[in-house]
Amino acid sequence: MKKPYIGITGFTTKKEVEEICDEFNNILISTDNKHIPMLGFLVSYKTLNKTPVKNKRYPLFENVFSLLRSIDKRFLTMIHYNSREINTLADQVSRVFEGIYENGLCRAMQLNIVWPDLNQVKKIKTKFPEMQIVFQASQNVMKGKTPIEIAKGIKQYNDFLDYVLIDPSGGRGEPFNIKNSLEVYSELREKLPDLTIGFAGGFTEKNVSERLLKIILQTGEKDFCIDAEGGLRDKITKEYGDDLLNIDKSKKYSKEAYFMLS
Asked: Which CATH number describes the domain made up of 5-261?
């Protein structure tokens, strides 16, 4: 099993990255601890091809390389990639990681794609054997399926995955149903014992302690990941993605999460 992470996703500027890295250092989260800090960067088919997007959570793709270079090597960096062009996914990933993978700036990615083509995932892992791949069990992945069916579906990717993130919110900051997510977690634990599993959905600096306590009490474990995105941002309008990362919220979330999971 890979080491579980405490993650924040949606960085777009070097200042954001540096401030959170300083905070991670201040609270002594590092690869020497049980949980590793994770900094996530959103990339899509559109941003890869330099098509303008309104979503403020996406950095310009040409800036991703320099953002990754500014991160402490002890921390886990991860690119969260989404695309509707599923038949050429492996080729797209090759473009995303050109110059990034070989320089050791990032060797982890989350596939924000509903049931990606298995052959494409295999091609990615073949070309990038050290790539850590996260399967996002999103709302659309889980829709209409029982926990057993979800776990069986994900199991077909088992040889190519390192993590599964139970993420019904998909970055929208919507609280997940803990009971339902724990049922999925239980099935994944049973059927995929070698994978590290995580939770996402509506984590904020105000609720992270309470939610983690519930998960810990019901699973009897702390070796799971968490990731936060929408819940750490300040809305400008109600439009999805029209928001900005709040550094103070992110720092408090990090402290609370580390305290609960240490």
From this structure: 3.20.20.70
The string of pLDDT tens digits covering residues 33-92 is 789 999 999 999 999 999 999 999 999 999 999 999 999 888 999 999 999 999 999 999
245 DSSP β-pair partners: 233
Residue 258 belongs to what H/E stretch? helix 247-261
Angle between the N-to-C axes of helices 61-69 and 14-26, in degrees from 0 to 180, rounded to the nearest 10 = 30
The span from the CA of 82 to the CA of 109, in Å, is: 10
Residue 17 burial (CB count, 10 A):
23
Cβ contacts of 88 within 8 Å, gap of 6 or more: 120
- Does pTM top 0.85 for this prediction? yes
Contact 114, 137 (CB under 8 A): no
Please give the helix or strand (H or E) that residue 214 lies within, else none: helix 208-219
Where do the structural domains in the chain lie, given as residue ranges? 5-261
DSSP code of residue 17: H
d(CA 81, CA 89): 10
At residue 174, the pLDDT reads: 57
As a whole number, the mean pLDDT across the chain is 94
**Which of these, 63, 82, 47, 83, lies nearest to 11 by C-alpha position?**
63
